[in-house]
Specification:
- The chain is an all-alpha fold.
- It has one domain.
- It is 86% helix and 0% strand.
- The chain contains 5 helices and no strands.
- Helix 1 packs antiparallel against helix 2.
- The longest helix is centred in the middle third of the chain and has 38 residues.
- The protein starts with a helix and ends with a helix.
Protein backbone atom coordinates (compact mmCIF):
# COMPACT_ATOMS: atom_id res chain seq x y z
CA UNK A 1 0.00 0.00 0.00
CA UNK A 2 2.89 2.39 0.71
CA UNK A 3 3.83 2.71 -2.96
CA UNK A 4 0.23 3.52 -3.92
CA UNK A 5 -0.04 6.21 -1.25
CA UNK A 6 3.35 7.62 -2.27
CA UNK A 7 2.25 7.90 -5.92
CA UNK A 8 -1.00 9.52 -4.80
CA UNK A 9 0.85 12.06 -2.65
CA UNK A 10 3.42 12.85 -5.36
CA UNK A 11 0.72 13.48 -7.94
CA UNK A 12 -1.15 15.60 -5.41
CA UNK A 13 2.01 17.71 -4.97
CA UNK A 14 2.23 18.19 -8.73
CA UNK A 15 -1.48 19.07 -8.92
CA UNK A 16 -1.18 21.67 -6.14
CA UNK A 17 2.04 23.08 -7.63
CA UNK A 18 0.21 23.46 -10.95
CA UNK A 19 -2.72 25.23 -9.30
CA UNK A 20 -0.51 27.65 -7.42
CA UNK A 21 1.82 28.28 -10.35
CA UNK A 22 -1.07 28.92 -12.71
CA UNK A 23 -2.79 31.27 -10.28
CA UNK A 24 0.41 33.22 -9.56
CA UNK A 25 1.13 33.66 -13.28
CA UNK A 26 -2.45 34.77 -13.96
CA UNK A 27 -2.39 37.19 -11.01
CA UNK A 28 0.83 38.72 -12.34
CA UNK A 29 -0.62 39.00 -15.85
CA UNK A 30 -3.73 40.65 -14.41
CA UNK A 31 -1.55 43.37 -12.85
CA UNK A 32 0.38 44.10 -16.04
CA UNK A 33 -0.38 46.88 -18.49
CA UNK A 34 1.98 45.48 -21.12
CA UNK A 35 0.43 43.12 -23.68
CA UNK A 36 3.74 41.36 -24.38
CA UNK A 37 4.22 40.63 -20.67
CA UNK A 38 0.63 39.44 -20.38
CA UNK A 39 1.12 37.11 -23.34
CA UNK A 40 4.30 35.65 -21.86
CA UNK A 41 2.72 35.17 -18.44
CA UNK A 42 -0.30 33.46 -20.00
CA UNK A 43 2.04 31.00 -21.76
CA UNK A 44 3.50 30.19 -18.33
CA UNK A 45 0.02 29.91 -16.83
CA UNK A 46 -1.02 27.51 -19.59
CA UNK A 47 1.98 25.29 -18.89
CA UNK A 48 1.01 25.12 -15.24
CA UNK A 49 -2.59 24.49 -16.28
CA UNK A 50 -1.39 21.45 -18.25
CA UNK A 51 0.07 20.13 -15.00
CA UNK A 52 -3.29 20.77 -13.31
CA UNK A 53 -5.18 18.86 -16.01
CA UNK A 54 -2.90 15.83 -15.93
CA UNK A 55 -2.52 16.07 -12.15
CA UNK A 56 -6.25 16.10 -11.51
CA UNK A 57 -6.67 12.84 -13.38
CA UNK A 58 -3.61 11.11 -11.97
CA UNK A 59 -4.33 12.16 -8.39
CA UNK A 60 -7.78 10.62 -8.73
CA UNK A 61 -6.47 7.43 -10.36
CA UNK A 62 -3.72 6.92 -7.77
CA UNK A 63 -6.16 7.81 -5.00
CA UNK A 64 -8.51 5.05 -6.15
CA UNK A 65 -5.55 2.66 -6.45
CA UNK A 66 -4.44 3.54 -2.90
CA UNK A 67 -8.00 3.03 -1.67
CA UNK A 68 -8.28 -0.39 -3.31
CA UNK A 69 -4.78 -1.56 -2.34
CA UNK A 70 -5.34 -0.28 1.20
CA UNK A 71 -8.70 -2.05 1.34
CA UNK A 72 -10.42 1.17 2.41
CA UNK A 73 -14.19 1.09 2.40
CA UNK A 74 -16.25 4.16 1.54
CA UNK A 75 -18.78 3.03 4.14
CA UNK A 76 -16.20 3.13 6.94
CA UNK A 77 -14.28 6.24 5.93
CA UNK A 78 -16.38 9.39 5.88
CA UNK A 79 -13.29 11.50 5.23
CA UNK A 80 -12.77 9.59 2.00
CA UNK A 81 -16.36 10.15 0.85
CA UNK A 82 -16.10 13.84 1.73
CA UNK A 83 -12.79 14.12 -0.16
CA UNK A 84 -14.25 12.50 -3.27
CA UNK A 85 -17.33 14.73 -3.13
CA UNK A 86 -15.20 17.86 -2.76
CA UNK A 87 -12.94 16.72 -5.60
CA UNK A 88 -16.03 16.29 -7.79
CA UNK A 89 -17.20 19.77 -6.78
CA UNK A 90 -13.89 21.23 -7.98
CA UNK A 91 -14.32 19.31 -11.23
CA UNK A 92 -17.74 20.89 -11.73
CA UNK A 93 -16.12 24.32 -11.84
CA UNK A 94 -14.58 23.44 -15.20
CA UNK A 95 -17.77 23.18 -17.30
CA UNK A 96 -19.77 25.69 -15.26
CA UNK A 97 -17.24 28.51 -14.82
CA UNK A 98 -13.80 28.00 -16.34
CA UNK A 99 -14.74 26.89 -19.85
CA UNK A 100 -17.53 29.41 -20.57
CA UNK A 101 -15.65 32.32 -18.96
CA UNK A 102 -12.45 31.16 -20.65
CA UNK A 103 -14.09 31.62 -24.05
CA UNK A 104 -15.00 35.20 -23.14
CA UNK A 105 -11.42 35.76 -21.98
CA UNK A 106 -9.96 34.30 -25.18
CA UNK A 107 -12.12 36.62 -27.32
CA UNK A 108 -11.00 39.63 -25.25
CA UNK A 109 -7.36 38.55 -25.51
CA UNK A 110 -7.62 38.03 -29.28
CA UNK A 111 -9.16 41.48 -29.66
CA UNK A 112 -6.41 43.04 -27.53
CA UNK A 113 -3.77 41.33 -29.66
CA UNK A 114 -5.42 42.63 -32.85
CA UNK A 115 -5.40 46.15 -31.43
CA UNK A 116 -1.91 45.76 -29.99
CA UNK A 117 -2.93 47.10 -26.60
CA UNK A 118 -4.53 46.05 -23.33
CA UNK A 119 -8.22 46.75 -23.85
CA UNK A 120 -10.90 47.46 -21.29
CA UNK A 121 -12.53 44.17 -22.30
CA UNK A 122 -9.35 42.25 -21.48
CA UNK A 123 -9.02 44.05 -18.18
CA UNK A 124 -12.65 43.20 -17.38
CA UNK A 125 -12.10 39.55 -18.37
CA UNK A 126 -9.08 39.38 -16.05
CA UNK A 127 -11.22 40.75 -13.23
CA UNK A 128 -14.17 38.38 -13.79
CA UNK A 129 -15.59 37.89 -10.29
CA UNK A 130 -16.99 34.43 -11.01
CA UNK A 131 -13.60 33.15 -12.16
CA UNK A 132 -11.86 34.75 -9.20
CA UNK A 133 -14.31 33.18 -6.76
CA UNK A 134 -14.02 29.80 -8.50
CA UNK A 135 -10.20 29.87 -8.37
CA UNK A 136 -10.28 30.80 -4.69
CA UNK A 137 -12.85 28.08 -3.99
CA UNK A 138 -10.68 25.61 -5.88
CA UNK A 139 -7.68 26.35 -3.66
CA UNK A 140 -9.70 26.29 -0.43
CA UNK A 141 -11.33 22.99 -1.37
CA UNK A 142 -7.97 21.43 -2.24
CA UNK A 143 -6.59 22.52 1.16
CA UNK A 144 -9.65 20.98 2.86
CA UNK A 145 -9.16 17.74 0.91
CA UNK A 146 -5.51 17.62 1.96
CA UNK A 147 -6.59 18.16 5.56
CA UNK A 148 -9.12 15.33 5.29
CA UNK A 149 -6.52 13.01 3.76
CA UNK A 150 -3.94 13.74 6.45
CA UNK A 151 -6.17 13.98 9.53
CA UNK A 152 -8.90 11.46 8.61
CA UNK A 153 -11.22 13.14 11.13
CA UNK A 154 -14.25 10.92 10.57
Amino acid sequence: MDWAVLLHVLTAFAFVAGLVGRDVAIAQARRSNDLASITTLLVVANRFDSIVKVGSITVLVFGVVAMVVGDLSLADNGWLVASIALFAAVGLLVPTVFLPRGKVFERALADARRRGDVTSELTAAFRDRAVSLARNAELVIVVVIIGLMVLKPF
